[in-house]
Structures are given as structure tokens and as C-alpha cells.
Amino acid sequence: MAGTAEAQKQIAEVTGDYKYGFVTDIDMDMAPKGLSEEVIRFISAKKEEPEWMLEWRLKAYAMWLKMEEPDWAKVSFPKIDYQDAYYFAAPKKKDGPKSLDEVDPELLATYEKLGIPIREQEVLAGVQGSAKVAVDAVFDSVSVATTFREELKKAGVIFMSISEAIREYPDMVKKYLASVVPVRDNYFAALNCAVFTDGTFVYVPKGVRCPMELSTYFRINAENTGQFERTLIVADEGSYVSYLEGCTAPMRDENQLHAAVVELVALDDAEIKYSTVQNWYPGDKNGKGGIYNFVTKRALCKGKNSKVSWTQVETGSAVTWKYPSCVLAGEGSVGEFYSVAVTNNYQQADTGTKMIHMAPNTRSTIISKGISAGKSQNTYRGLVKVLSGAENVRNYTQCDSLLVSSECGAHTVPYIEVKNPTAQIEHEATTSKISEDQLFYCRARGLGEEEAVAMIVNGFCKEVMQHLPMEFAVEAQKLLGISLEGSVG
Amino acid sequence: MLKINDLHISVGDKEIVKGLSLEIKPGETHAIMGLNGAGKSTLAATIAGRDDYDVTSGSIEFEGKDLLELEPHERVGEGLFLGFQYPVEIPGVSNLNFLRTALNSIRKYRGLDEMSAAEFMKLVREKAKALNMDPEMLKRFVNVGFSGGEKKRNEMVQMAVLDPKLAILDETDSGLDIDALKTVAEGINAQRRDDTAILLITHYQRLLSYVQPDVVHVMIDGRIVKSGGKELALELEEKGYADVA
Questions:
Q1: What distance in Å separates residue B141's CA from the closest CA in chain A?
Q2: Interchain CB contact of A451 with B (< 8 Å)
Q3: Domain ranges of chain A
């Protein structure tokens, strides 16, 4: 094994220490390679889905076939061959294990290595005395464990994999699935509808404050496999839930596709806080490999005075295309977007948000911090739209870009469409190069070069990081430092 | 402790320091005085390791080690501290976090364990109090929105917490009112011990009334032209640089 350790060390040196890059050796159930009606039928059958779900998938597939891949984002990558990937990969089940003791030990070991607590008695790795966090662990195409379900059930909170929800709560799923992101919304969303394999379903009933943080941990393991997860969170009147997702993948030379759809629905006076720490494998120093992260995330603030807050820390993926958005349909509803996007080496990120103000007295806040290093390209793209009937809308947008190297790019592309004269829209943007004076000052106090960069960058992101749940803020800070390793000089 | 031998420093094509030698022993406080452009700050920044300056010849030894071979943070680990003429603002980073990271980086370099949060807080509070710093300032972002005097006081708190063997203080007295000057002087004096040394870089004699140096050097055009006891500073003040040199 000494040889392996050495190899891992070498890999770490060239990739800037992506510590989640290992592969779990486990027996897998795979769909035949490629995409076709047969494959979709295979997926649906594997998941023991009702007929209506299969019909829905096939319709989506037919739509997708007629659509074209979008090309407006400031990213470039070789054309994806959709027939050259697997759309379903699941660890082989040994006669449907239900208790964690029956889960394959290889899987348990994987999550242990990732620091994800899938046993209820565990707390998050490295965080002493942290609060309880319920976890849904998705491994390639299936959910392998969901913790604290009983305790949550007592509070009336449903927290389970979406596959189970389709079987157990079909009416609820039918009502809300694709109600925020329509099937034909965009190319990747339609693809997701056709082939989505697993993800999380959350329902918080009226007046309930969810008693713990909920989280889903996505892991891509299998080779040449796309991950298409689907998350649906519904917060009923006056409820509150805080949800976090994390993602990692092994280091591979081939690019892998991750096309997720996340839909949030907040009814009257409900609040959803959705945080993401995205750390998919970014590719190596020369831009080889890495995940294509093409994700559609949207929240519908349907009820009066509802609120949705997106916080994202994006450090991974070779190419990111992602715009967590809020449709503010309920009067007085509030949308927030706090984002840190770090790109290094050859990474490309085109990310931002859309705030669609449909109702009067709606408010939105956008704080975006982009950090580009190496030869990366980092774009903020955001839309603030105010419909004619929406009186007294307010928006505040702040976009700051920090350049760490001299060969990277930072771009800010704001779109503002206002059709009501009472709206107050503010937009501030700055771009700056990391200051030599700041770096030297830190180094003259004993910090190494990379430590100095990490400290300055963390300071730059402070306004966003403070919106992360406490348990994850520390980890996210470390992640920023790791992502920028090798970015100086 | 510090031995500089025939040091030449250039920025681009221009030579700024033109053959400077200096030796500082433990327990000593030296002052380098000179007008703007004499090369004082260039010398200080070069000792600390700023890479905008090229050392074209000569050597700097710190406790027997070739300082020029070390990275800036390694020099700090060895026990060097540079008090900045213009302390830099770092938005979003609290003074406490900054100091704690600095202290632990130095401890790591020396092979020591991290200091516990409780122990660290006790140390910082004690040092801040001795320098009359409002404890609220510790929570604020590094130097952001600080007045000139507050920035210099902050440098002194950092020095006290990091406890260097050799502190080089670049124009630490500039822009201070008399009360702040006294506080800063107290901070410097508290750092004077048998096993530490101080190098003050200054224009004016006024700080030297509160921190009495053992040796005063006069620097003109990249060279030390005269050295003497503390009375040399007074002589400079009276006669001006031209006459003394």
C-alpha cells in the first residue's frame, strides 16, 4: 500500500490537494451505457416507480430530444456525447437493507472518510459539540441512508429520498414536482426530468420549525456516470427549515456530468434557508478531468411574507453553470442570494441568480464574491426583474471580484429589467487584484504565502460566509484555503 | 543578533542602499535617523523580506543564519518583527483572528503546539490593556477605519503578543500625538530586555526622548555616515543633517 500512498501524495501535489479524490471499490448495478427510452424504462423499473412517473419521464425525454444545449454562458468545453455515459449506477443491494448495519461496509467507510455522519450517534467530523444534523447520503444514483427520520417524523417533518417519496407521498410529489422548474425550462432541466435517479424530499408542516439542520451529501463514485439528482423542499405555512448540501467526487481524467434540479416552495410566512458547499472534483492543474456542474435551482416564494435564502460556496467543478433563483410571487416575500465562487487553474464558473419580483413589496438581496486564480474564468451573471404590477420592490446587489493571479478573468454581467417605476434597485460592483501590501503584511506577521492568500480571501468573503450554518462555516473556510493552494507565484 | 555587511539594495536600475554595515547585539536599542529617501524604509523592508527589492551584494545574518535565504514568514519564525510605517487594512479579518493565526503560524514554525483559545485571549487582553487599547478594537477588522494613532498602537499590540527577538520599527512615531507617542514608547520599552533588540527607524529625535537608544546611526544617501551615542540624536536635531555629516 506504500505505493498507493505515494501515488496519492503525488496526485495531491499536482491537484492542489483534493482530498476527496479517492474511489470506492464496490459492486455496482449499472444501466446500459447511453440514453434511450429503454434506459429510462430501466431506471424507472429499478426504482420501482409508479406508471405515472415513467410517463412523465418519457414525456420529458421527448422534449429534451427537441431542445438544444445552451451556449450563452461564458464557459467553453468540448461537446458532450450524451450516449457515452451511464445514467444509472447504484451499489448492489443485498436484499434491500433497511438498517444501517446492513449497509455495505465499503459505503460506511467511504462516508467515514468523507467526514459525513451517517450514523445518528455521530456528529460532523472535526466539529466538537455541534448540533444534530440529519443526513441523506446519495451515492451515485441512489440514496444509501437517511438519518434521524424517526425523530423528524415526530415533529411532522418528512425527510426521505425522493424515490421513496414518489412511492409513499405520490400526491404531494405530483403537486409540487416541476411546479417551480418546468420540465422544458432548459436543456439540462429537461434531461434531469428524464433520467433523475435520486435526491431528497423534504416537507415541513404548518407552523413547524424543523428541529435540526437537514442535509444531503452527494457523492459521485462510478466512472463515466452522470449524476442527476432531484431535490424538492416544501415549507408549509409559517414553517422554517435550514438545509445544506455537500458534494464530492473522485479524481478522474474524464469529465463527468452533474445536472441537478432543486425546487423549493415556501408558503405563507414560511422560510427556507438553503446552503451549498460545492466541492466536486475541479480537474487537475492542467484542466484535465473534473465535473461539469450544470444545475437548475429555483425557489418559489409562493406565500405572503415567505422567505428563501440561498447561500453557496462553490469551489469545485471544472465547469459550473448555476443560478439559484427566487420567484417572488407572494406579497412581501423576500429572496436572498449569498455566493462565494472560487476558481483556480483552468476552472470556469458562470454563476449568479435571478430575482423575479412578481408581487408588491417584495425584496431581494444579492451578495456575490468571485475569486479567480490560476488561469480560471469566473463570471457573475444575475437578473433582477420587476413586473409591472409589483409596487414598492427593493433590490440590493453587490458583486465583488478578487483576482489572485494575472492570467485569470473576472466578469460581471448584471441584467436589470424594471417595469414598475416605484422599484428601488441598487447595484454595486468592484473588481480588484489581491493587494501585494496585504500579502506582505500577513507574511511579515508569520503567515506563509498560501496562508496569507487564504486569510485575505476569507476576509473578502466574510459577508457571505456568515450566512452559512455554524457547523459548516469552519469547514467552508478551510475549503477556500485548500482551493487556492498553488495559486500564488 | 543582527549582522549586516556591506549591503547593496536596488529597485530596478536604481541603487538605494549603497554599502551599509550594521551590527546589533542582544539587549541593544539602535536608531537609524535620516531624511526621506535616505533608504531607511528600503533597508527595513529588505530585512523583513519584501521581494520588490534586489540585494545586489552584501549579507544579512540573523543569529548566525543567512536571512536572505529565508522566506518572510520564516524570518518571523526566527524572531524578527517589522512594525510598519503604514499598517495595512485587511477587511473582513478580525484583529483577534489575525493575531491568533500569526501567533500559531510562528509557533508551528518553532515546532510548538497551537496556543489554546483561552490562553490566547488572556495574553491578548493583557497586552492590549498594557497599551491602553480598547478591547473592542480587537474585534474590529485589521486596521480598517483605524486612525493613524490607532494603527500604530495596533502594531505595538502585535509586537507585544508575538514577542520578537528583534523588532524593527519603521517610523512608528510618525503621525502620533503626544499621548499616543508616550503609549507607543512604553510599548517599545516593555519589549527591551537582555535577550531582545530594537531597531528604530525615524526622522525625528522626539521618540528618542522616550526610548533612549544605545546607538544612533545617521543615514544619508544609502550609507551610514556617522554613528554615536544618544547625544548624536540631539546634535542632529540642533544642527541638521548636513552639518552633522
A1: 9
A2: yes
A3: 18-430
